[in-house]
Amino acid sequence: MVGDATIRERIVALLASRAPTSSICPSDVARSLSDDEAEWRALMPRVRHVAAMLSETRVVTVTQGEGVLPSAGVLTASGPIRLRRGAMFPVDR
Fold first, then answer.
1. Closest to 47 measured CA to CA, from 28, 21, 68, 66
2. Where are the domains of the chain?
3. CB atoms closer than 10 angstroms to residue 42
4. CATH architecture, domain 4-85
5. Each residue of 67-93: pLDDT tens digit?
6. How far is CA 19 from CA 24, 26, 84, 88, in A?
7. How does DSSP classify residue 69?
8. What are the φ and ψ backbone dihedral angles of 76, each rounded to 5 degrees?
9. Given this model, what pLDDT does residue 32 score?
10. 0.70 cut: is pTM over it?
């Protein structure tokens, strides 16, 4: 089973590998952790949970459309969301 720490590290690594203004989809994170479709789909709620925690600490900003979601909204949002670097994103990666 993939733990929260692994998911957190993967979110940060994927964002660090892109331009500072770029975003990623939570499914990018899940797919990078498993090639098996059933497994990565099963990871999606965990990825959103970790994204919500990272949003609380401002490491990431979670958006939906043009709006920024509050951390609590990450878990209840229906439809696609995106993850971006937040104000506290580690810049020394």
1. 28
2. 4-85
3. 14
4. Orthogonal Bundle (1.10)
5. 999 988 888 899 999 999 999 999 864
6. 11, 17, 10, 16
7. P
8. -105, -10
9. 98
10. yes
